[in-house]
Design a protein that fits this description.
Blueprint: E1 2-8, E2 13-21, E3 24-33, H1 39-52, E4 64-67, E5 78-80, H2 83-91, H3 100-113, E6 118-122, H4 133-136, H5 142-146, H6 156-169, H7 173-180, H8 182-185, E7 196-201, E8 207-212, E9 215-219, H9 242-250, H10 254-263, H11 266-271, H12 277-285, H13 289-313, E10 318-322, H14 323-328, H15 330-336, H16 349-354, E11 359-360, E12 369-372, H17 377-391
Parallel strand pairs: 1-4, 4-6, 7-10, 10-12
Antiparallel strand pairs: 1-2, 2-3, 5-6, 7-8, 8-9, 11-12
Helix pairs in contact: 1-3, 2-3, 6-7, 6-17, 12-13
The chain binds adenosine-5'-diphosphate (ADP).
Length: about 400
């Protein structure tokens, strides 16, 4: 089975082609285009390259295209990306303005160019379908909730992959299987001690998720991807009173406030240096106080959520770091794990300093394991797409 995973940005089109032999996936090709103005042309170029490279004999060899769609309001899970999905992406674009319009446009282009190839959407919110009501509700009027104001959660593909892999590394294959088949089978009861995993996706945008017995029960992300931790240039958590207050105080329009919160906030605003943690860290090391504060605030927010979920689950069997910062910044990992030895978390700082790949970073007497698990969201999309095709074969 051949599955193409399409990653659509506002001006970019990236792809990976996976070949499945049974359930075993191999990434056979990847590529992409920047400064895309016409997705249709980029799709044609991509297919021509895959044919010329011998990866696909023809379009008939392609079983499906999978999309890591971000937000569809009440539409979530892993679903056939038909025209109702395109419409839902556009209807909910105000909460994911950078992500939804390119996905709606790209899915439509695939429909028009390759009408016989199935399209599958895996929503980033899918992993959070089973959040308990108390953990996804905001204390807003019922009419707001009915209108869709709630915690949805994002980065679902990444957190799901990290949680599933951590369960495997902890020799809890029955829990890993629950996470793996969650969108087909739903949560299931686990015999024995509960498995409590906290996953930290730290990258351009960041979030923390609590996963108990293979199922997400809490997330730092809220209504939109600009909630929770300070993001690269998006605000993260903010008291809602700040918006009317600053509107009056600085005479800003709501559109301008929204623009500043989504483009000029987060680590960029705190540091005054930039939105890349490497630059902020370099400035902090050179004595820039604002850069130091930005890093301290980022670490504080991560520890805040990790602590909340640790307490909520009554412990933590594994803490996982993934994505650009989580995989590459030994300093952030060490700062997040500092001073926790009396809670049973002891990292081996030497191993932490040299480990960019999948590793257990803990000393052997640490009750809580700390793993680096490299993100592989495209693989998750490809696997879920395959599962949907197997569960719902095409009508003859
Ligand atoms: P995105 O969230 O945009 O998909 P990534 O998960 O790749 O991106 O994360 C990108 C971020 O990772 C960059 O903005 C940068 O801040 C951070 N990063 C990458 N390498 C390092 C490093 N060695 N040290 C600190 N931060 C890093």
């Amino acid at each position: 089975m051949n599955i193409l995973v399409a990653n659509l940005g506002s001006t970019s089109f990236k792809y990976r082609l996976f070949h499945f032999d049974g359930s075993l996936a191999t990434e056979v090709a990847k590529g992409g285009y920047e400064r895309v103005t016409d997705y249709g042309k980029a799709i044609e170029d991509c297919l021509a390259l895959l044919s010329a490279g011998g990866f696909l004999k023809s379009v008939a060899d392609l079983d499906a295209v999978g999309f890591k769609t971000v937000f569809g309001g009440s539409l979530t899970g892993c679903v056939e990306a038909d025209e109702s999905v395109e419409a839902a992406l556009l209807a909910t674009a105000d909460l994911a303005p950078a992500h939804n319009p390119p996905y709606a446009a790209g899915i439509r282009q695939f429909r028009e160019k390759l009408p016989s190839v199935r399209r599958v959407a895996l929503f980033e919110t899918a992993f959070y379908q089973w959040l308990p009501e108390y953990s996804h509700r905001y204390a807003v009027p019922e009419s707001w909730y009915q209108a869709g104001v709630r915690r949805y959660g994002f980065h679902g593909a990444s957190h799901k992959f990290a949680a599933e892999r951590a369960a495997e590394l902890l020799d809890r294959s029955e829990v890993a299987e629950i996470t793996r088949s969650l969108y087909q089978s739903g949560p299931r009861v686990v015999a024995g001690a509960p498995l409590r995993i906290i996953t930290c996706h730290l990258g351009g945008s960041s979030s923390v998720t609590a996963v108990c017995d293979g199922v997400a029960i809490g997330t730092s992300m809220g209504l939109s991807p600009q909630s929770g931790l300070p993001q690269n240039n998006r605000v993260g958590e903010l008291d809602s009173a700040a918006i009317p207050f600053i509107q009056r105080k600085l005479g800003l329009t709501i559109q301008e406030i929204e623009r500043q919160l989504t483009n000029e906030s987060g680590l960029l605003a705190l540091s005054g240096v930039g939105n890349d943690l490497r630059d902020i860290r370099a400035a902090a090391l050179a004595g820039n106080r604002r850069a130091e504060v930005a890093i301290e605030a980022f670490v504080y927010a991560i520890r805040h959520w990790v602590g909340a979920f640790w307490f909520e689950m009554g412990g933590c069997d594994a803490l996982v770091f993934t994505a650009g910062i989580g995989e590459n910044s030994a300093f952030i990992r060490e700062s997040v794990c500092a001073g926790l030895s009396r809670m049973g978390l002891i990292i081996d700082t030497r191993r932490n300093d040299v480990s960019p790949i999948e590793t257990d970073l803990t000393c052997c007497d640490s009750a809580t394991k700390v793993f680096i698990i490299p993100a592989n969201e495209e693989l998750v999309v490809a696997r879920e797409t395959r599962r949907l095709l197997l569960a719902k074969p095409a009508a003859a």
